[in-house]
Design a protein that fits this description.
Radius of gyration: 25 Å
Oligomer: single chain
Strand order of the largest sheet: 9-8-7-1-6-2-5-3-4-10
CATH topology of the largest domain: Rossmann fold
Structural class: alpha/beta
CATH class of the largest domain: Alpha Beta
Number of domains: 2
Bound molecules: guanosine-5'-triphosphate, magnesium ion
CATH architecture of the largest domain: 3-Layer(aba) Sandwich
CATH superfamily of the largest domain: P-loop containing nucleotide triphosphate hydrolases
Helix content: 40-55%
Shape: globular
Largest sheet: 10 strands, mixed
Amino acid sequence: MEKNILEYVKEVRGLLAGQELLGAQTARAAALQEKLEDQSLVVSVIGQFKRGKSCLVNALLGEDILPTGIVPITSAATKMRYGKPSCCVRFFNGVVKPVSEDQLGAYINEQQNPGNALGVESVDMTAEADFLKDGLTLVDTPGIGSYHKNNTDAAYAFIRESDAVVFLLSVDSPINEIEIDILRNTKEYAAKFFFAVNKIDTIGEADRKAYVSYCKSLLGMLMGADDVALFPISALTGEGLDALKTELNVNLRAKVREILEESARLKLKDVCGSALSQIELYWKVLLMPPAQLKGCLTDFKNYLAALPEETAKTVHELEADRDIIIPGLEETLKVKLNEYKMGLSGRVTEVFGMDYHYELPELREGDPTQTGAENRGSWRLASELGREYLEETARLAEELGRTIDEVLMYRESDTVAVVNRIYTLNKLTRTLKRIRRILEGTEEENPAPSTHPIKMTDLCP
Ligand SMILES: Nc1nc2c(ncn2[C@@H]2O[C@H](COP(=O)(O)OP(=O)(O)OP(=O)(O)O)[C@@H](O)[C@H]2O)c(=O)[nH]1
Ligand SMILES: [Mg+2]
């Protein structure tokens, strides 16, 4: 590609910005730009459940930081970066809670947090381990394929963010269908693979050799490569770890820029694909039989109309309608506001089948600028905070109702506005498809610019 990948990321971000229904893709393009500018590389340890991923992360760091165990355990991704030891749990509703290392299990162990009832999105940890130097993020992901489907989903969600992966097998079994699936999926997002087979301390030399030779040829076939390096290791005894570490130093740490660029290309291709699918969903809604569309809209409007009563109830239950001071109320209402936004997007998906994205502000527990008695704001009257919450939720609902009317061109009396919207959308579709083809290497850059005037076909999906 002539243009560098950062320029394409910026172009896609610019194209998507301001498109009401493409907020999630815009946010991903923005995150990709930040990642490339910061040159921050994410390497994840992935694999089927119980292969020894958490043990391997501990071994690479040289510290027993992560909980490990015999039964399905890890239920959320833990991102490790270099820094003074610290640990924060990140929840789906935007709350970020500092916890001590020994509390970690309560959030990321399937047994202590079954089905992820606490809504943990991921954990951010810092440790002063040499392996994490040079801005590397090492991630322990949940195991894939166990009875606990939420762990599989959490792992797959994180794989999308990985630039490189250490794919961990174990001598317990040769590569199976689940692992082949993981590999196929990961190839869509990660630019570099390192393969290791764990628990070699449990078998003899002859079995090791047979295992490695069998899996190496299978992996070669799956990766479309003549030769794939497969590192036999024991995360428990440390055997073979030095060879794996050397490989990671030579082919990961020393090649950050190269890996990031390739990973950004894969991820940007996915962002374009996801924006195109969302546009397709949007067309499906627009082309619904009018009576059906009207039914959906009525459904949605009824939902919005019922919200003020619900939010008033919340305020009342929290006693936020009284002239008293309630410590921590401001923080509670901020969390409720994030959850309110999550409810709105969920409902759009439910009724129309499309995504609707809200940026959720991060809410740090224990941060004096946001919470706690030191915060002057928290001494405000509950009634005032409650009123603000009611106003803000009403504004969000009204804004969403208007956006939905606009994007679905409902009750739009101005024909020019309708034509413009369709034309812009079709132009965006064509541009995204072209960029995706360039990223795939199936189209040349800089074709002669089109000079044709607007045709009827520009106005149809
Ligand atoms: N013998 C032996 N056992 C190991 C080795 N590595 C891990 N184990 C054991 O395998 C079990 C699972 O280890 P974990 O590190 O928790 O595995 P995991 O892949 O993180 O598990 P999930 O997160 O639940 O998918 C534990 O009982 C470990 O002690 C190893 O190299 N040799
Ligand atoms: Mg684990």
